[in-house]
Amino acid sequence: MEVAPWVWWATITITTAVLLVDVLIIGRRPHEPSMAEVSRHLAVYIGAAVLFGLGVFFFAGGQYGAEFFAGWLTEYSLSVDNLFIFIIILNKFAVPRQYQQTALMIGIVLALVMRGIFIAVGAAAIEQFSWIFYLFGAFLVYTAVKLAQEGSKDEDDFEENRLIRWVEKRFPATKEYDRAKLFVNQNGKRLITPMFIVVLALGTTDLLFALDSIPAIYGLTQEPYLVLTANVFALMGLRQLYFLIGGLLQRLVYLSYGLAFLLGFIGVKLFLHALHENELPFINGGEHVSWAPEIPIWLSLLVIVGTLTVTTVASLVSAGGLTEEEQDVRTGPRRDWDSDDNGDNTGE
């Protein structure tokens, strides 16, 4: 797939412009969006993704068009899974509803930056080392097995990682939110706010999810431009989706199992592709393995759509989904910034 440099720059420029407009609007007027607002914005983002995919079909051919839609749907489903963790983080740190938009937007910007770096590194690695597909495939299969074994238990609680705990201990911090500010000045001291800790938690979580999503989409397309645009369209409407179906997300009890199946499927697809591109001397004498079947993109797209449909329907028709008590357990305890165990983190 030949992508002219001006197309790359135009895509990056438009993405940056959309993010800047969104950030400036939210920064000027932090608020909890209405259902009409998020529905309208989400429809625009999804419609733009569909139109872009049809454009790829028209200008680059059906193969690349199918690769984009397969990658976009996979990344979107993984992004929906991210929302479970976002809900837990925002609830645990007791982020006021009117400031959650800002926290989510900053988290999405960080996710785009980190995924852009991962995409560039992945493309360079694939260009130089075809055996990287073996590593990608093995990692996805391992992730799939782990996710299937844990089910939704891995999302029952959020444990602060070492970086967050280190920041909380070492940096002076306020007890209360000051609108959506990350830093404030008090008595001549520059302090971080709880919002800074929330953004740090979202950013580190995005980094971990990128480790799964980038190998997964490279199992569906090796075109860096399609990998980038699929990630951009999957993340752009994530904030609106959070407010639109935040409660419904708690009832997608089988989503983890569906994603485990998809990751395993793509992992096997990557391994088979690696056999075709094989250059490792200890596998078939360094020659490609002709008997290994290639999974066509149309079959991948069919499996992705079918799995997501079955997973969603099965979750919604299951025995009432989750009770309110189970939802409270799922989102975990709220962080009380005024509690004694948190302490007055003033750096003294």
Detailed description of the structure:
It is built from twelve helices and two strands, in the order H-H-H-H-H-H-E-E-H-H-H-H-H-H. It is mainly alpha-helical. It has one domain. Strands 1-2 form a two-stranded antiparallel ribbon. Mean pLDDT is about 75; it is low at about 325-335 and about 335-348.
The assigned structural class equals: mainly alpha
State mean pLDDT (0 to 100 scale). 77
Order of helices and strands: HHHHHHEEHHHHHH
Distance between the termini: 58 Å
Q: Report the portion of residues in β strands.
A: under 5%
The largest beta-sheet arranges its strands as 1-2
Count of distinct strands: 2
CA-based shape: globular
Keywords:
348 residues; 2% strand; two-stranded antiparallel ribbon
Please specify the SSE layout and strand pairing.
Layout: H1 5-28, H2 35-60, H3 62-92, H4 97-128, H5 132-150, H6 162-170, E1 183-186, E2 189-192, H7 194-218, H8 224-236, H9 238-249, H10 255-276, H11 297-317, H12 324-331
Antiparallel strand pairs: 1-2
Helix pairs in contact: 1-4, 1-8, 2-3, 2-8, 2-9, 3-7, 3-8, 3-9, 3-10, 3-11, 4-7, 4-8, 5-10, 7-10, 10-11
